[in-house]
Specification:
about 375 residues, alpha+beta, 4-stranded antiparallel β-sheet, globular, EC 2.7.8.37
Length: about 375
């Protein structure tokens, strides 16, 4: 046993060294710096920050480098580091209406107040490989815009709410402290605050699949992208010693408001309902998917049919976390020798009983079980 343990330890240490070598690649190629990853792979950095639930572009870049580009592994690393940090306090609620916008579009109003701002997006590219990127080149600086952005850009949902055309999002009685998913276990029925926290750090691919399913008929909504905003926003924290809030930094965020039709019920008339998505960094696909799923999870509360996968709170919330899902799947690589041997012995005993002379499952009395077939199966499970 001792020899086996020491041998396993040496193998693991060698595995570390081989991983370092695999991650570094050809030594003739310059090593990636964290600045390069942070500045030239911003979408990957944004996803790691969002699903790792920690806003720090530098640490997200480090996690991506350490994980050799494996986003889920990088999320795992960042979230594990997050658990070691002390919590000094809570920031003030942010007002996305004050966002320093880089992009703002709406698919519901052509002439939305403040105008459509396309910003940086792949939406209008042709999805053709740009081979000029193979050559290292100095990018030209983007000229400053000739016209400043309109400072008055009301949210589309606020315009609908002004005419009482969309469901109100009232503050609950007593204004209770919001649910904290990082300190409280998820329980059902889950409040919307808990659901949104879960979705905010959920796996983008899972949310995309769930949101897509609602558009293909596995749901009861017909969504419109009321507004998508991307930009930068100051974060404030109230300092008790000073008696007022101070700005502690600026974060990059993306927000999406989806609206869907609602036919009404016995208590309220027809109106639009909303789904909401917000995430760290630049992540439109994530926030759109999040908003679709948020609306789907409201179905039961609105008295709608809730028989689709995206309507099932437990199914969606328990399976959306990529760190937990990855760990559960990858644990299958660990030794399961005893379990497998028990199953193998049980299978042999069942086959022996099945093949016993005179049994109802005697191959001799069952033409569907040819002798050659049973012999091949026996050889397959033989020690």
């Amino acid at each position: 046993m001792y020899v086996a343990v020491k041998g396993g330890e040496r193998a693991i240490l060698n595995s570390y060294r081989m991983l370092d070598d695999y991650r570094r690649g050809d030594r003739a190629v310059p090593e990636l710096s964290l600045d390069q990853i942070r500045e030239q792979m911003p979408l990957a950095v944004s996803r790691v920050m969002a699903e790792g639930s920690l806003y720090d572009p530098q640490l997200a870049a480090l996690a991506l480098k350490q994980a050799a580009g494996d986003v889920i592994e990088a999320v795992f690393l960042l979230r594990a580091y997050r658990t070691t940090l002390s919590r000094y306090g809570y920031t003030q609620p942010i007002d996305t209406g004050r966002m320093r916008l880089q992009r703002r579009i709406s698919s519901t109003f052509k002439d939305v107040p403040g105008g459509q701002i396309l910003g940086p997006t792949y939406d209008y590219t042709q999805r053709l490989l740009d081979f000029s990127l193979e050559a290292e080149r100095q990018a030209d600086a983007l000229p400053a815009g000739d016209e400043p952005l309109d400072s008055a850009m009301p949210r589309v949902t606020d315009l609908l709410a002004h005419d009482d055309l969309i469901d109100a999002e009232a503050i609950p009685d007593g204004d209770p402290e919001p649910f904290d998913l990082t300190r409280q276990p998820l329980d059902f029925p889950a409040s919307r605050a808990a659901r949104l926290q879960n979705l905010a750090r959920a796996d983008e691919g899972f949310l995309l699949s769930m949101g897509y399913s609602t558009q293909r008929g596995y749901g009861n909504t017909h969504p419109f992208a009321a507004e998508i905003r991307y930009g930068f926003l100051e974060v404030e924290m109230h300092i008790e010693e000073l008696g007022f809030a101070v700005t502690v930094g600026e974060i990059e965020i993306t927000e999406c408001q989806m609206v869907s039709q609602f036919s009404g019920n016995g208590e309220e008339g027809p109106k639009f309902t909303r789904g909401y998505g917000l995430t760290f960094g630049y992540g439109e696909r994530k926030t759109m998917s999040m908003a679709l799923v948020d609306r789907a999870l409201k179905a039961k509360d609105l008295g709608e049919r809730a028989d689709s996968p995206a309507n099932d709170h437990e199914f969606v919330l328990y399976h959306s976390d990529n760190v937990e899902a990855s760990g559960f799947v990858q644990h299958l690589k660990l030794p399961h020798y005893v379990d497998f041997q028990a199953n193998l012995e049980l299978l042999r005993r069942m086959r022996a009983e099945r093949a016993a002379p005179g049994s109802a499952s005697d191959p001799a009395s069952d033409p569907a079980l040819a002798p050659d077939t049973t012999r091949q199966l026996d050889e397959a499970v033989a020690p």
